[in-house]
Amino acid sequence: MQNVLPAYSTRTRMSPRAKWFGAFVTLTLTLSVVSLLAVGPKAVAQVAVSSSSSAAVSSSVQPAAASQSAAGAQSPCAAQTNELLDDLLINGTLTKKQYDALKEHNAERCAAQEAAIKAKTKKESLYVTASATGIGIHTGNFDVALSGEVNGFYIHNRPYNVPASDYACLLCETTDGGGTSSQVSDGIIPGWLMMTISTHQGGWDESVNFGVWASISSVNQSGPGVNFDSGASVALGNPGIDFRQQFLTVGRHNVGTFKVGRDWGMIGQEAILNDMALFGVGTVSAVGANSTTAGTPGPGEMAAGRIGSGYIYLDFMPQITYATPDLKGFSAQAGAFQPLSDAVATTLGATTVSAPYTGNGSPMFQFKLNYSTPAKFPVAVKLWSNYLVQKMSANASDVTADPSLQVGQSIKAYGMDYGGKLDVKGFSFVAYGYNGKALGTTAIFLAATSPSGVARPSHGYYVQGLYTYKKWTVGVSDGMSALLPANAQDTVSGLVRDNALWIGQVRYRMGSWASAVAEFDHNESESSTVLTAPKSLSNTNVATSDAVAVGVIAWF
Known about the structure:
The protein has 556 residues and is an alpha+beta fold. The chain is 19% helix and 38% strand. The protein is built from seven helices and 19 strands. A 16-stranded antiparallel β-barrel has the order 3-5-6-7-8-9-10-11-12-13-14-15-16-17-18-19.
C-alpha cells in the first residue's frame, strides 16, 4: 500500500529566530568561559555546578577522566576549569577548535599562577615577624628569643666591732672590723642576657643558647678569676663580663631532652632558684671577704645571697645531660660533668688548708629527681632531690704541692640535697637541706678535705616564708651552712666553721618587669680561730654584721 503520509526529514528545521537565539547562547557561554579563565578556577567551578544539568555533569566524567589519564594527574587549578570545558564541548556549546584554544590558555594560566604562589611562599619564609610569646622574632623555621635581668642596689653594711687583726677567717661571710661601708653594686646576680635560637626539624626540638653575665661594679683585673675578685673602687675601672653559658639542646616530647655544653649544675639548683634573695642581696661579702679595706664587695663584684649560708653554689660547668619527659608530675635528669678540684688548694694555693686532688680520672656525675602536683590542684607542691658524686685522687704534682699526700691517694666526694615548696592562697613556703662528705662549703669542693686529704663533712639548710598581696610581697628566711673538721688531727686555724644568715625582704612590683626591693640582712660567722679580743666571753670566735639594701631589679 502506497504511503500517502507526507514525507518529513529526520532533521528538524530551525526557524530564523531559533538560529539567532542559539548563536546568542553560544557566544554568551564562550565569553563566560573566557572571563572565568581570567578570574580563576573557583569561579569556574561555581558556574559548572550552578549551570550544568545533572545529565551534562554525568556525561562529562568520561572525557575528563580520559583526559586526566592521558595527561597524568592535574593540578587543582587545571582540573576544575578543564572539567567545565569538557561539559561545554559535549553539549555542543564549544567547537573543538575553541575547546583546544581555551584549554591551552588555561594550562598556561595555571602554570603561571602556581609559579607565582611558589615564589611568594619562598619569599615569605625569609620574612622576620614578631615572636608569638616573649621577646623575640620568628624568621623562616627559627625563633630567636631574648631573656634576662638588670639590677642595682645601694648597700650599707656595718660589721660589729671586731678588730681585723684578730679575726682572720677563710670563707667566713661576715665582714671584718674594717668599718662600715657603702656601695652601689649588683645583688646576688649580675646583669644577665640569654639568647636562645630554636627550631623544630625532623620531629626534633633543637636550640642553641648563649648567656652573658655582666656586673655594674669594676673589677680588680689582678685576681685569680672574676668570681674571686673583690672589686676595684677606683676611677677608670671596667666591669666584669662573664660568658657563663653556651649549650645546645635536642629533644622530643616522648623521648626527653639532651643537653651538651656549659650550663648550671643540678645540686643546689632549686635552692638558689627559690631563694627570695635572688631578687635582692643577701650576704654582702663571701669569697674575698674579711679584707681590711672597707667597702669591697664580694665574689665577682656582687653579693652572694644565701650561697654558703644555706646551700652550695650550683656553679656553671661543662656537661652532657639527659632529662626525661614529664611522667605524671615526675621527672628526672642525669649527666656527666667536668670533674672539679678544690679551688682553695689549687686556685688560691692554700694547701695548708686543704688538699689539691687534681688527678681527676673520671667525670663528676649528678642526678636529679623532681615531682610537681598537677596544675588543677588547689595547692601547688614541688619536691626535689639532687645527688653529686666524684672520685678525687692525687697525682705527682699534688704531692709536690702538698707532701702530706701520696701519689694515687683518692677519696670519693658526694653530696645530696632535698627540699620542697608549697604555694597556697598568696603564701609560699620553702624548706631545704643538704649534706655531704668532701662536698665543701659555699661552692663545690671549697675546703673539702683536710691538708692530708681526709674528707670533711658538711651540711646546711634554710627555711623561707613569703606572702604576696596584689603588688606587695613580704618575706623572711633563716639558714646556715657548716663545715666540720675531718678528724681530730684536722686543726686548721682561721677556717670557717659555719655561716648563718637571716633575711627580711619587702618587694613592690611596679610593672611586668621591674620590682623595687628593700632588704635587711643579718650575718653571723664562726671561725676556728679563737679571738684574742672577743666581742663576748661566750662567743670568742663569732663575728656578726648587718646590712641594709634598697634597689630595683627587672626581669624580662
